[in-house]
């Protein structure tokens, strides 16, 4: 049972954003918020076992994990912390995306927090997918339709446990706070500031219109350098 609060943005805005892949959203961001050209998105490659899944758009649930060291908490406190974690993941603005930083330093990915159980539990809690620099496993048994971007794929969960949740995390070069709006697909992920989210679909359409004359001539059997120059000029005139 999850408790999904009405998000700060209309569902129609999230739906509109989900019609575009993440690179197109990055292109649109360059138009709407050029000052974010170098920040707010993943800059390191992540493994995506399900590249054919559509883009996901949701509000971040942030977690820091580690697996090399065993939790120092007593068993009873560990059980309590796990319930508190699931309560955090399963409440708040929805839909949600789990963003998990592995804080094991040089041993990042040593143990997988994610597999058959966690993917199905998090899907039931209202999450659309996970973005993590840690490892994942159980790919054939993974929850259907649940997207994953991960630092690696491995066999064991070692001593993996959540050290903290709800704070700021950094995954693959992308800094994320709880409730940040995230757009992700097989290419990576980007944080979308709430105040410009509604402007991005129109900007994405503009990007597409500007690319059209260039692609048309590039794919044409009559391609020539002169025609490319003319197409590039037409592209810059599209507003």
Written overview of the protein:
- There is one protein chain.
- A hairpin with a 2-residue loop joins β13 (181-185) and β14 (188-192).
- The longest helix has 19 residues, at 200-218.
- The protein has helices at 11-17, 22-32, 75-89, 116-124, 200-218, 225-236; strands spanning 3-5, 56-66, 91-93, 96-102, 112-114, 127-132, 135-136, 147-149, 152-153, 161-165, 169-171, 174-176, 181-185, 188-192.
- The protein is 31% helix and 26% strand.
- The protein has 239 residues and is of the alpha/beta class.
- The strands form four sheets. Strands 2, 4, 6, 8, 10, 13 and 14 form a seven-stranded mixed sheet that branches. A three-stranded parallel sheet has the order 5-7-9. Strands 1-3 form a two-stranded parallel sheet.
- The chain has six helices and 14 strands.
What's the Cα radius of gyration? 20 Å
Report the β-strand fraction as a percent range.
25-35%
Low-confidence runs? none
Order of helices and strands: EHHEHEEEHEEEEEEEEEHH
Overall average pLDDT: 95
Q: Main beta sheet: strand number and arrangement? A: 7 strands, mixed
Structural class: alpha/beta
Number of helices, counting only DSSP H or I runs of 4 residues or more: 6
Residue share in helix: 25-40%
- End-to-end distance, in Å? 47 Å
Shape designation: elongated
